[in-house]
Amino acid sequence: MLFLAALFGFMTWTLYGALVVTPPAHVLGETARIIYFHVPVAWVAVLAFTMSLWNSVVVLRRHSYEADMKAEVSARMGLWFCVLATISGAFFAKSAWNMYWNWDPRQVSITVLLLVYMAYFGLRSATPDFDRRIRLAAVYAILAFAVMPFLVFVIPRVYMSLHPDTIINADGQGKLLDDKMRLVFWCAAAGYSFLYLKLYNLSVRVERIARRKEGWDV
Amino acid sequence: MPARLLMDFISGAWAVMKKDILEEYRARYAFNTTLLFCVTCLVMVSYSLGGAVTDPMLQSAMLWVILFFSAMTGLSRAFIKEEDKGTMNTLRLCCRADHVFYGKTAMNFLMMSSVIVIVAPLFIILLNVNMRHVGYFALTTALATVGLSAVSALLSAIVAQARARGMLFPVLAFPALMPVFLTAVRATGMSLAEAAPWTGGGELVFLAAYAVAATVGGGFLFEYVFSEQ
User: Fold this and answer.
1) Residue A60 buriedness (CB in 10 A; 0-12 / 13-18 / 19+)
2) What gap in Å lies between CA B69 and CA A206, rounded to an integer?
3) Given Cys at both, which of A134, B15, B50, B109 links A68, Cβ 3.0 to 4.6 Å?
4) ∠ CA A107-A110-A112 to the nearest 5 degrees?
5) Closest CA to B112 of B74, B139, B85, B77
6) Option in A119, A135, A151 nearest B172 (CB)
7) CA–CA separation, A198 vs A195, rounded Å?
8) What count of Cα atoms within 13 Å lies in the side-chain half-sphere of residue A48?
C-alpha cells in the first residue's frame, strides 16, 4: 500500500513536471511534451518483452509452468504498453505531421511488433496441449524478440523517417534536452518502470489463481 | 575429427532433403501449387495494370508480395505433411533435429529458388520490367530466400503441432519475415533503377545478416520444437 501511495505521488509529480515545469523542446515546441509519456511507455514495452524473452528461455531450459505464466503475463503487458505507445505516437503525428498515420518507418515497425505479439497469443490459443503450448510459445517468443532489434533499431535508421528522435536525440545522449527536461524525462521513465513492476506482480498473482483453477501446476 | 562431424552433418541433412526431393518429384504437390499460385497472381497483376508504366519500387513490391504469399502456400507444407501422414515420429526416431532442420531449410530454398527462376523472367516480360542490375537482383533474391526458407521451416514445425494450421502459418510468418520482406523490396527496386545499387550495399548486408541469424538461430530453436519432451 505504501509503495502504491509513493508511486502515485511520484507519478503525479512527474506529470506536473512534464506539463508545467519543463520548457518547450528545441524545434518541436509544446508537442514534444509527449516524450514524457510516449518514450517511457515504449521503453516499458521493450522491458516487458525482454522479461518475456528471459522467462521463455527458462521455459525451454527447465520446462517450467511458472516461467511460462510469467512470460505470457509479460508479453500481454508489453502488448498493452505497445498499444499505448502506438496511440500516443499517432496523436503526436496528428499534431506534428497533420495526420494520425502516414506509414513512417517507426509506425511500420511498431505495427509489425504488435502483430508479432498478437501472433504469439494466436499460437497459444491454437495449441490446446499444455506441454506443447509452453514449448512452442517459448520458441516463438524468442523468435519474436530476435526480430525486435531489426524493427526498433535497424528499419527506422535505414528508411527515411520523420520521427523526432533525430531532432531531440541527435547526439544519441539527449543532450539537446535541458536539465529540467532530462530530470523529468528520467523520472517518468523510472515511474513507468515501477508502475510496470507493480502491475506485473498483480497480474502474475491473478494469472496464478486462474491457472490453478484450470488445473495447471503453478 | 571436425571434418568427420561436418561430413556426418552434411550426409544427415542431405538424407532428409533427398527424401523430400523424391517425394516432391513423385507428387509435385508443393512445387506445382507454389508455381501456379505465383504465375496466376503475376498474370492477374499484369492484366489489371493493362500495360501501364509503373515505378521500379512498385514493380518490386508487387513481385515480393506475390513471392511472399506463394511461399506461404508452399513452404508451410514442410512439416505439416509429416504430421498429416504420421511420419513425424519416424523422423524423430531416425534423424537428429539439426539434420532435419537444415535438410528442410535446404529443400525450402531449392523449391523457392526453382519457382523464382521461372517467375522472374515472366515478371520481366509481363510487367515490362527493365532489369538493369541482374547480379544485384540475383544476390538479393538468393539472400532473401535463405532467410525465408529457414524461418518458414521453423514456423512450419511449430504450426504442424497446432490447430488451424493453414491460417496460423501466415499470421506467425508475416511479422517474423517483415524485415526481410521490406529490405528485399527496397533492394529489388534498386536493381531495377538506373543508379548503380552496389555503392551503398546496406540492404545486402542486412539480408545476409538476417539469413545467418535465421539459419543459425533457427537451428538452435528447432531442437525444442522437434523434441516431444
Assistant:
1) buried
2) 40
3) A134
4) 105
5) B74
6) A119
7) 5
8) 32
Chain B interface test: which of A64, A127, A150 (most B C-beta within 10 Å): A150
Residue with cell 527458462: A58
* Among chain B residues, CA nearest to A121: B172
Domain ranges of chain A: 41-214
* Sign of the CA dihedral running A194, A198, A203, A209: positive
Find the residue in A nearest to B178 (Cα).
A112
pLDDT tens, chain B, 229 aa long: 678 888 888 999 999 999 999 988 888 778 888 889 899 999 998 888 887 777 888 899 999 999 998 888 888 888 888 888 888 888 888 889 999 999 999 999 999 999 999 999 999 998 888 888 899 999 999 999 999 999 999 999 999 988 877 788 988 998 889 889 988 998 999 888 877 766 666 788 889 999 999 999 999 999 999 987 5
Indicate the residue type of B67: L
| Chain A residue at shortest CA distance from B164 | A126
Burial class from Cβ neighbours inside 10 Å (0-12, 13-18, 19+) for residue B89 reads exposed
B187: buried, middle or exposed (CB in 10 Å: 19+, 13-18, 0-12)? Answer: buried
CB-CB under 8 Å, A127 with B225: no
Residue pair A137/B161 in contact (Cβ under 8 Å)? The answer is no
Measured between CB atoms, which of A123, A150, A151 is closest to B158? Answer: A123
Tell me, yes or no, if B101 comes closer than 8 A to chain A by beta carbon: no
Mutate which of A112, A133, A142, A152 to disrupt the B interface (most B C-beta within 10 Å)? A112
CA B13, B18, B23, B28 torsion-angle sign: positive
Minimum Cα–Cα distance from A63: chain B residue: B229
Backbone angles phi, psi at B164, to 5 degrees: 50, 50
